[in-house]
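Input/output pair, single chain:
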Amino acid sequence: MDLQHISDIERAAHKGRGEIFRLGMGVIFIVAVMFYSAMRGSGEGSLVLVMAAMIGGYMAMNIGANDVANNVGPAVGSKALTLAGALVIAAIFEAAGALIAGGEVVGTIRSGIINPDLIPDSDTFVWIMLAALLAGALWLNLATAVGAPVSTTHSIVGAVLGAGMAAAGPSIVDWATMGGIAASWVISPLLGGFFAAGFLYLVKRSITYQVDMAEAARRMVPLLVGLMAWTFSTYLLLKGLSKVWKVGFGAAVLYGLIVGVLVFVLVRKALSGRDGIVANTKQSVNKLFTVPLIFAAALLSFAHGSNDVANAVGPLAAIVDVVTSGGVVHKDAAIPTWVMMVGAIGIALGLALFGPKVIRTVGSEITELDQMRAYCIAMAATITVIVASQLGLPVSSTHIAVGGVFGVGFLREYLKSNYDRMVAEIKAHHPEGDLAAIEAFIQRFEKASLEEKGRMLQDLKDRAKKSEDPANFSKGERKDLKKVYRRELVKRSQLMRIAAAWIITVPASALMAAMLFFTIRGMMLP
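Output:
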């Protein structure tokens, strides 16, 4: 055996040790949950409680491994945060959001999708929740393994749907709610992509397309960062702190505006007080968005932990309520603190152990991101959730964030293609062989403002109309010339893979939950 083969074996073994370590840490967490829940239960319900707690911990880890990537993936892909830094920030703020402001009630998980009145007894209800938890967790595990970011809400909703139908038939399902969820498959990514592309176009028109980018950045960045502070403060009050401090939409907007104005004043003062802080380069302008992106990742993680922890422990809390109340099924029940701890720790641990794969998919494997593009995605995710919630539209934060990444990528494709078409027109309206004149014109064109670019192109077209084309290009040849410059900046393979995963999430988790329900019922019946 030569040295190269030995080195290959050592690398494979090192990778295997990493996988074993992650698996081992996950098993230790599940075992710890098992022992703690065993001490909490007593009597006949103790075994059911232990099973539910273990599955709830497993579900929480899978949420951390998959869903949290949407909050920090763009920041990592743009290099505003390192992967290690993102993992630390997300783990801390996800857990904080879950424990401080998370999971006031579990009504949607337990009674918003299916009608509990049609469930024959409390035992059947418990079996439905167990099957839903396990099916949702298994589907998320599979999606994480292939690096596909999917909606954890859709996973658990589909699982409750499937288990409920297996127990009591189609009539148990609230089909109006399910119709809204199905609509969100389309609404969420389209809204996210639209808002992200809109913000990116605004940034390009107001900063990077300007002749003096440094001066444009000093003028616009305080406004953009202030807008971000306003939006995120409003989002945090409406979504992240709703359990701790309940405020209406108008009050949240007003308080957010106050924070945004303060941030605007501070950022403008910082930029105007140091003349050399911004160079006339895109890289220098990008750096101005680094700190806002770090705050965005933290706040999005906090809000995510406060909202989506119910996906992990909502069914678990429902089972705990049934077991501790002696078989009475309540429509709404508060989530116990120890159950919230299982969800919070599980999400943080799952993110740290298994999150990097999906983070890389969102951050760098769909399209290339920089800090400005990541800022646009973060803004799109926040504004879309606020607007959709006020309009009563059901949306998925996962689909919004990933849709934002695709929206940014497709806008870049369009702008790049449009610019290359303009360059092709410039070349087509100059005599053949006059490369020096073409290069000189293109250099002036690149440095010109948007208005000057338009005038230069129009002047070329006007001259072409007055005389024959000096390059003697036919219409077909010009069309072919434009095609040469077409570039794809979004990976179509990722688009198809992620879209397929989104479409089959609800039916796949529903089918798995139905099969698991029959399995659990068969095991539990005497």
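The radius of gyration is 27 Å. The chain has 20 helices and no strands.
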